[in-house]
Write a structure and sequence with these properties.
The complex is a heterotrimer.
Chain A lengths: L10 E3 L5 H8 L6 E3 L8 E3 L3 E5 L4 H6 L6 H8 L4 H6 L2 H7 L5 H8 L3 E6 L2 E6 L4 E3 L2 E2 L6 E8 L6 E7 L10 E10 L2 E10 L6 E2 L1 H8 L6 H13 L12 H20 L1
Chain B lengths: L1 E7 L2 E7 L5 H8 L18 E4 L2 E4 L12 E3 L12 H8 L9 H14 L5 H7 L11 H18 L1
Parallel strand pairs in B: 1-5
Antiparallel strand pairs in B: 1-2, 3-4, 3-5
Chain C lengths: L13 H6 L14 E7 L5 E7 L8 E4 L24 E2 L5 E7 L2 H9 L2 E6 L6 H4 L13 E9 L2 H7 L2 E9 L11 E6 L5 E5 L4 H12 L6 E5 L12 H16 L3 E4 L2 H7 L6 E9 L5 E13 L5 H11 L8 E10 L13 H18 L4 H8 L19 H12 L1 H11 L5 E13 L12 E7 L5 E5 L8 H13 L6 E3 L18 H28 L4 E4 L2 E4 L4 E5 H10 L5 E6 L6 E2 L4 E2 L5 E13 L5 E11 L6 H21 L4 E2 L2 E2 L17 E7 L16 H4 L1 H13 L5 E2 L3 H9 L6
Parallel strand pairs in C: 1-12, 8-31, 10-11, 14-15, 18-19, 27-30
Antiparallel strand pairs in C: 1-5, 2-4, 2-6, 3-5, 7-15, 8-13, 9-10, 9-12, 13-14, 16-26, 17-18, 17-23, 20-21, 21-22, 24-25, 26-27, 28-29
Classes of the chains: A alpha+beta, B alpha+beta, C alpha+beta.
Chain lengths: ~270, ~160, ~750
């Protein structure tokens, strides 16, 4: 996947799985293409407090990675496209492409990731949540590229969850997706992060639902029902398109949030 | 025009190519290796699958220059001295070939799978082949062929 | 012979396919070849106001419009309602306005970007029911109704009046894209002597030849069509390849260069034909004990902007809707209508899957109404020997319908599974169901296509004993070449490995009609067998004279004297002897099926040569959270006459199940205002490996005298009953009726959530 906005007039190439599709569809050939391959940003590194993932790390690498802190991300990565695409598609490309249906980006949002951006004025690090502006749009300027992602390590996370819903079993663009991480104590949720995909212009944290669950005394049938309804009404803004209608998307959000919470409740 | 160095089926090539070319175009047009097919041009069908540096990729989604200095295996590189690879033979024996257009892509994806995972589970087969589409067989015979090939290769190694 | 006929011999063209050495259309290159592109209408319906073509140097490229057609600007395959290149009016976004040829891909793209087309839009007709409204814009001067067909027998009003139960429903089926892995394409090579060679990935090389001759205004004898390895077809390469070939030919004609056109996947989705969507209003009259008395059906086929093959498809739907059931009265009206939507045409099943879905659903609804099991209803009403069909044909031969039904019930353990599902439906999140369909297929061309129904084969034995065969029916993956090789080898008594069967070359054989209607094995096998038999007689006569022997046979590559049970010669020696005696060592075979008596006004008579019968059973699991349906199991029993290649038959059945399941559940083409929004595999969900069910099947082999070694067709029967069985299983799981396919997750979820029953 690639950055699709010009970098000083050039186009950035990461894995190529989005860029070449765009070139083919639009028949526009960029004057210059700069490949990030040689920069070597393709490592996954554990530090004491975080996991650092280079932007050129592929979906296949993440899918095979044996890192419990990255559970939801590994799961998302394993369902990106088909096997051949997973071998080429990069996490950086997935994020910068900024599709509301992006799988890896969604998992990163649920993991509360930061992103390190480099440009001519130096480096900056921002919260991934602030990175997206709209479908296909990010806060990157013409001169910036994404170098790495940082995921804070939290040993108390008890549940990683990723579910992607579409027209068949594998290899599809999600109609609705849910990426979530939970820290629970008995039948209370102490902290939860839920990110919903394909139901808003950007990958979205279900903040109302999270707050409700975190402030609930317990998680029982009533709470699950309320949370699911909240997620499907207040925490998403789906549209109707040729893939699905808005009603269907809301319904699926309701159903999969409910399914997820029941799974958490055990 | 730019210069591309590439190693394909164990042969070195130095080519002058249009930089807009995809790896698929270079293989099919510059090297006349037409076994690799274009089914969709968008990475959805896997008919263009080749192995680049040990990994199965969609050659329609790769600029040829991305493969500069790389090692590439195509369908033409599988049979040795006219003797079919076990995967190729398994596809024939299980009736997993009908129109034949998806076949090279499936065989290459199977090759990539069995090299790294000689005893794949059903789930692992589905996952490794989820980037390939067949419209003729309904995939049933292809799964049989992959399992047959895995058995044959394991037997060969013993 | 039995060693070969019915064996599971690996196909004879497998090796080149697994090594990648088989050259498909896009693999072919010719010196000086240019690439061709098609420029289509930017709007779905309108008047062409202007077409601005850029100045292009003749060494770089060329642009062609309707003014540049030397022959006739008409490509309609049946009715002449379709201009090849648009003149005044465009009726869909697949409509061609200009053709480009250029020395390379990038130049062609640049030229294309510089062409300016201005269309004044006309109001759109995108709904087939609206199309019939008198207020609707008329898409053609002749009006929006293309054709009206009927089947009428008995007094339906009386039957409905005296019935205990009337089941009524309006059923809808969606478009389907063939999604063959190899897109459409053609190459035309001017040979320099006034002849043109067309390389075509196609089912019907003779259609291609005829179409190109018309566009170029030259005799067919000046055109040679060579069918290439064809990467899948399923009906989608029946008529459309003629249009692509004519584009390449016209460009070759003007440039005097070889021109190659290969569609991108998006172009293929947008331009080429699709399965018809239909609206079927169906009425079933029955008694309280489940006896079916009569059927009424009002069927609408959406032809899109041109009639193409739509009337032929409608003919099959019209004839087949009443299903394999004994009825006292039928009243079917089938209408074909124009719209500005997708251009529809042939697709495996050819109208039968759609009408079978409607009828089989009605039967299950009848079962609900009279509180019987769907199995019992079918048991009561299925055809048997002596039954009268909807067209009034009395079936005097053995009718395998009930045998396939019994075997399928046994194979699937239907009764036990159904009981298990009733009991086990505890888990809220997964709903399970089981469904049956019983269907039949009229083999070969409908009476309406009879004039095309003849074919020829040429068999030649070389002096080294090897055999070459030319037939006029095409290999498209189904295994036709292998079946023909087996038939010829079986007849001659030799090893299949000695027989080489060619792809169709129109210079080598007479017009054999199209490779459609599951007639491939029948129409290539019968003449091939005859030609082989002629040769065998000559060989045996020659050897008999030489050795003064009688009772000679050829078996296992040897000529044997049956009386003394001695081997006289081996095959090679026998052939050498014939050559020494200057015997004619090539022969033609010809087959023309008998005429069928049929009245198209009433739909009465014998519309098809013979029926094949099938029973399908489907088990499904529905995820109530998402509406996604998983097919866990399919059982199929097919009345196939005689299997020529068991591996090939299995391939057809497994492939037909997947493709039928796609039509039932996952494949949906979404259009909006005449624009196709799902124009690639990204959004068009062809079943993948994860979708395939467990498959069990059995064959009933009751040889048919009209087929080679008794064979009937399997290409389409392998699909036709599948969507109906799946839809019935979904209905069983949900406990409510189902009226529309595809049963996408969204549709299923709204059925689950919706507590009202719509009709």
């Amino acid at each position: 996947m690639a950055l699709i906005h010009p970098y000083n007039g050039s186009t950035i190439l990461a894995g190529g799985t989005d860029l070449l599709v765009r070139i083919r569809r639009e028949r526009i050939y960029p004057e210059t293409i700069i490949s990030l391959e040689a920069l070597g940003w393709n490592a996954i590194r554990r530090t004491r407090n975080s996991v650092e993932i280079g932007s050129m790390v592929t979906a296949a690498q993440l899918s095979a990675c044996d890192c419990p802190e990255l559970g939801v991300l590994s799961c998302a990565a394993s369902q990106v496209g088909g096997a051949q695409i997973r071998n080429m598609a990069t996490i950086g490309g997935n994020v910068v492409n900024a599709s509301p249906a992006a799988d890896m980006a969604l998992a990163l949002v649920a993991l509360d990731a930061d992103v390190t951006i480099v440009g001519p004025k130096g480096e900056r690090r921002i919260h991934l949540h602030d990175f997206f502006r709209g479908p296909g749009q990010t806060i990157l300027s013409n001169e910036e590229i994404v170098r790495s992602f940082h995921i804070p390590v939290n040993h108390k996370i008890s549940e990683h969850w990723f579910r992607k819903v579409g027209p068949r079993s594998r290899h599809f663009i999600s109609r609705v997706a849910l990426a979530a991480v939970v820290t629970g104590i008995k039948d209370r949720i102490s902290s939860i992060r839920m990110a919903l995909g394909s139901v808003a212009p950007v990958p979205l944290r279900a903040k109302h639902t999270e707050r409700y669950l975190e402030t609930s005394e317990r998680i029982g049938e009533k709470e699950i029902e309320t949370a699911a309804r909240m997620a499907s009404t207040e925490d998403c803004k789906p549209i109707s398109d040729h893939r699905s209608s808005e009603e269907y998307r809301r319904r699926i959000v309701y159903n999969i949030v409910k399914e997820f919470l029941w799974e958490c409740a055990g | 025009m730019v210069e591309l160095h590439i190693r394909v089926n164990e042969r070195e090539h130095t080519l002058r190519i249009d930089p807009r070319s995809r790896l698929l175009d270079v293989l099919r047009n510059d090297l006349d290796l037409t076994g690799t097919k274009e089914g969709c041009g968008e990475g959805e069908c896997g008919a263009c699958t080749v192995i680049v540096n040990g990994k199965a990729v969609d050659s329609c989604l790769m600029l040829a220059m991305q493969a500069h200095g790389s090692d590439i295996l195509t369908i033409e590189g599988l049979a040795k001295n006219g003797v079919l690879n076990s995967i190729q033979q398994a596809f024939i024996d299980e009736g997993a070939v009908q129109c034949g257009f998806c076949t090279p892509g499936f065989i290459m994806s199977t090759y990539a799978l069995l090299v790294s995972n000689p005893s794949p589970t059903h789930e692992e087969i589905y996952s490794a082949l989820d980037g390939n589409v067949c419209r003729c067989t309904g995939h049933t015979s292809i799964i049989r062929a992959v399992e047959r090939a895995a058995n044959a290769l394991r037997t060969e190694r013993e | 012979m039995s060693r070969i006929i019915g064996a599971a011999i690996p196909r004879i063209d497998a090796r080149e396919k697994v090594t990648g050495s088989a050259r498909f259309l896009s693999d072919l290159k010719f010196p000086g070849m240019w690439v061709g592109h098609i420029v289509t209408s930017p709007k779905p319906h309108g008047i062409i106001r202007s077409v601005e073509v850029p100045e292009v140097g003749h060494e770089a490229g060329i642009v062609i419009t309707h003014k540049d057609i030397p022959g006739t600007n008409q490509i309609g395959i049946v009715q002449k309602d379709q201009e090849f290149l648009a003149i005044g009016r465009v009726r869909s976004m697949a409509e061609r306005i200009a053709l480009i040829a250029a020395r390379d891909q990038f130049t062609a793209e640049r030229i294309k970007q510089d062409i300016r087309i201005e269309i004044e839009p006309l109001p759109l007709v995108d709904d087939p029911l609206y199309s019939l409204d008198s207020q609707a814009p008329q898409i053609h001067a002749s009006g929006n109704l293309v054709a009206r067909l009927s089947v009428r027998r008995g007094d339906i009003e009386e039957i409905c009046g005296t019935a205990d139960v009337i089941v009524e429903g309006t059923y809808r089926t969606g478009y389907q894209e063939h999604a063959y892995l190899e897109t459409q394409g053609a190459i035309c090579v001017p040979e320099g002597n006034g002849r043109y060679t067309i390389y075509s990935t196609c089912q019907c090389p003779f259609y291609v030849r005829s179409a190109v001759a018309g566009i170029l205004g030259i005799p067919q004898s000046k055109i040679r069509v060579k069918q290439t390895y064809t990467g899948g077809a399923f009906g989608g390469k029946e008529d459309y390849p003629s249009e692509v070939a004519a584009c390449a030919a016209l460009l070759a004609f003007h440039t005097n260069k070889p021109v190659k056109i290969v569609f991108s996947r998006a172009e293929d989705f947008t331009f080429s034909t699709k399965r018809h969507r239909t609206v079927i209003h169906h009425t079933l009259a029955a008694m309280a004990d489940g006896t079916m008395r009569g059927m009424k059906a009002d069927i609408i086929f959406d032809a899109g902007p041109y009639s193409g093959l739509s009337v032929v498809v409608a003919e099959r739907g019209n004839s087949s809707v009443c299903g394999p059931y004994e009825l006292d009265a039928v009243d079917v009206t089938t209408r074909v209508v124009y719209t500005n939507n997708l251009f529809t045409g042939a697709f495996r099943g050819f109208g039968a899957p759609q009408v079978t879905f409607a009828t089989e659903r009605q039967i299950d609804e009848l079962a609900r109404r009279v509180n019987m099991d769907p199995q019992q209803i079918r048991e009561k009403n299925l055809w048997k020997r002596g039954s009268k069909t909807a067209s009034g044909e009395r079936l005097n031969e053995y009718v395998a319908m009930r045998q396939t039904f019994r075997q399928a019930l046994r194979l699937s353990s239907y009764r036990r599974r159904k009981r298990q599902y009733r009991v086990g439906q505890k888990s809220d999140s997964i709903l399970r169901g089981i469904g049956i369909s019983t269907s039949y297929y009229g083999n070969n061309l409908h009476k309406g296509g009879e004039r095309l129904d003849r074919s020829q084969a040429f068999v030649s034995i070389q002096d080294d004993g090897s055999v070459t065969v030319s037939v006029g029916l095409t290999e498209m993956g189904q295994g036709l070449l292998t079946a023909v090789a087996q038939i010829v080898a079986g007849e001659l008594g030799i090893d299949v490995a000695k027989v080489e069967v060619m792809h169709v070359d129109t210079d080598k054989i007479q017009d054999c009609g199209p490779t459609v209607a599951s007639r491939g094995t029948i129409m290539s096998g019968m003449p091939a067998r005859r030609a082989a038999r002629t040769l065998k007689r000559r060989i045996l006569k020659t050897i008999a004279n030489r050795f003064d022997a009688k009772n000679l046979v050829i078996e296992n590559d040897r000529i044997i004297d049956r009386k003394s049970d001695t081997v006289l010669l081996d095959w090679d020696q026998g052939i050498a002897l014939c050559y020494a005696e200057r015997v004619e060592m090539a022969a033609l075979g010809f087959h023309v099926p008998p005429e069928k008596p049929y009245d198209s006004a009433t739909g009465q008579g014998k519309p098809y040569a013979v029926n094949s019968y099938s029973t399908h059973m489907a088990e499904v699991e529905i995820d109530t959270g998402t509406g996604l349906v998983r097919v866990s199991r399919i059982c199929a029993v097919h009345d196939i006459g005689r299997a020529i290649n068991r591996q090939g038959v299995r391939g057809q059945i497994e492939g037909g199940i997947a493709q039928g399941a796609g039509l039932a559940l996952w494949e949906e083409l979404v259009t909006s205002d005449g624009h196709l929004l799902t124009d690639g595999f990204t959004d068009y969900a062809v079943p993948g490996m994860g979708e395939i069910p467990e498959i069990s099947f059995e064959l009933v082999e009751h040889p048919w005298s009209g087929g080679p070694f008794g064979a009937k067709g399997i290409g389409e029967p392998s699909l036709i009953g599948v969507p109906a069985a799946i839809a019935n299983a979904v209905s069983d799981a949900l406990g409510k009726p189902v009226y529309e396919i595809p049963l996408t997750p969204e549709r299923v979820l709204s059925l689950i959530d919706d507590n009202s029953v719509s009709s």
